[in-house]
């Protein structure tokens, strides 16, 4: 969450108070979306753990 907050402050010009005023459910959706970008998909289980 810290990474997303810092990213929003840099790119969006948001103040920390603006971020904290957001509804919690909306903020968690943003966190989930940012985590999905980092997932690498593989076709085999062996490749996934190497």
Automatic annotation (TrEMBL):
The lineage's top-level taxon is Bacteria
What is the name of the protein in this document? Phage protein
């Amino acid at each position: 969450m810290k990474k997303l907050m810092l990213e929003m402050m840099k790119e969006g010009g948001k103040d920390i108070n603006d971020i904290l005023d957001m509804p919690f459910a909306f903020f968690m959706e943003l966190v989930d979306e940012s985590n999905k970008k980092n997932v690498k998909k593989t076709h085999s289980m062996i490749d996934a753990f190497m």
